[in-house]
């Protein structure tokens, strides 16, 4: 009996020790800067998840909804003395968006620090440096919550709190997807600052006009603005965003899966 009690006490102490050695959600307990594993960051509509390395090079997984993003020339996790978590990311570092549509779960790629807010297909071209305001650590999220398999999301939407913005109040994100069936995707249009009349022509034999974001059938895997909460309510008539009534819609395109676009800096 004494041995059993001693073992129980040791187990409890071990659990408390492990909890003290790591921060909430798997974040480091001690302030400092920690390397990030490249291409390990994901966002599911509620929380970010990523791998960071300690001084010995051991990887640890963190999952949190309370982290800010800023552009930098290296990928790292910063924990401030005030216990604030900040992800420093290169301009060409993608974040995997965990998503869902009528076919099930899938993953897409989001480049938060490309110029402008766009949906595109094909190669991602970075031909403009990130503006100064991208260096400020703030809560950043994808600029849209509606997209399809194979779409690449560019740009970001900020919020003053650690939750995605109300997408029903944001302007729809245009899609540079002209000529999808021929493979002539948006390319560097994803980095343009202004697209007053984005084209959605050439999709599934139709010409189509307006914002391709209004025709998307997928969304975040989780959260109050994810697929289960919003997409089934998007109608095919005059509906223009989440919250409209009507049948759910589909893209009419076969699933292609998410492929990491080729990165070209375009700099000399």
Structure description:
The chain is mainly beta. The protein has a domain of 161 residues. The chain contains 2 helices and 17 strands. The strands form 4 sheets. Strands 2, 3, 4, 8, 9, 10, 13, 15 and 16 form a 9-stranded mixed sheet that branches. It has a 4-stranded mixed sheet with strand order 1-6-7-5, with no helix packed on it. The longest helix has 20 residues. The C terminus is likely disordered.
SS elements, strand count: 17
Number of helices: 2
Assess the beta-strand content as a share of residues.
25-35%
Radius of gyration: 21 Å
Residue share in helix:
under 10%
Determine the mean pLDDT: 75
**Which series of helices and strands comes N to C?**
HEEEEEEEEEEEEEEEEHE
By helix and strand content, what is the structural category?
A: mainly beta
Q: Spans with pLDDT under 50 lasting ≥5 residues?
A: 9-23, 177-213, 235-260, 263-268
Oligomer: single chain
| Structural shape | globular
* CA(first)-CA(last) distance: 74 Å
Main β-sheet description: 9 strands, mixed
How would you summarize this macromolecular structure in one to three sentences?
The chain has helices at residues 2-21, 227-230, and strands at residues 32-35, 42-43, 48-53, 59-64, 68-71, 76-79, 85-89, 95-101, 104-111, 118-120, 124-125, 139-141, 152-154, 157-159, 174-176, 219-220, 263-264. By secondary structure, the chain is mainly beta.
């Amino acid at each position: 009996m004494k041995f059993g009690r001693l073992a129980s006490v040791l187990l409890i102490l071990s659990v408390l020790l492990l909890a003290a050695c790591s921060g909430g959600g798997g974040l480091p307990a001690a302030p400092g800067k920690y390397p990030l594993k490249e291409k390990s960051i994901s966002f599911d509509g509620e929380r970010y998840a990523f791998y960071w390395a300690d001084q010995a090079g051991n990887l640890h997984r963190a999952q949190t909804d309370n982290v800010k993003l800023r552009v930098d020339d290296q990928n790292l996790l910063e924990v401030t003395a005030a216990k604030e978590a900040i992800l420093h990311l290169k301009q060409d570092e993608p974040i995997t968006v965990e998503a869902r549509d009528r076919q099930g779960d899938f993953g897409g790629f989001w480049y938060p620090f490309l110029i402008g807010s766009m949906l595109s297909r094909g190669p991602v071209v970075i031909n403009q440096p990130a503006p100064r305001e991208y260096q400020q650590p703030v809560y950043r999220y994808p600029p849209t919550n509606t997209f399809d398999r194979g779409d690449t999301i560019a740009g970001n939407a900020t919020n003053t709190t650690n939750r995605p913005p109300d997408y029903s109040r944001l302007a729809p994100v245009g899609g540079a997807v002209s000529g999808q069936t021929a493979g002539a995707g948006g390319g560097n249009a994803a980095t343009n600052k202004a697209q007053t009349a984005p084209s959605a022509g050439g999709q599934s034999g139709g010409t189509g006009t307006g914002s391709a974001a209004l025709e998307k059938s997928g969304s975040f895997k989780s959260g109050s603005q994810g697929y289960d909460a919003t997409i089934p309510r998007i109608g095919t008539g005059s509906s223009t965003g989440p919250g409209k009534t009507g049948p759910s819609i589909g893209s009419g395109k076969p699933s292609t899966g998410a492929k990491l676009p080729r990165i070209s800096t375009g700099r000399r």
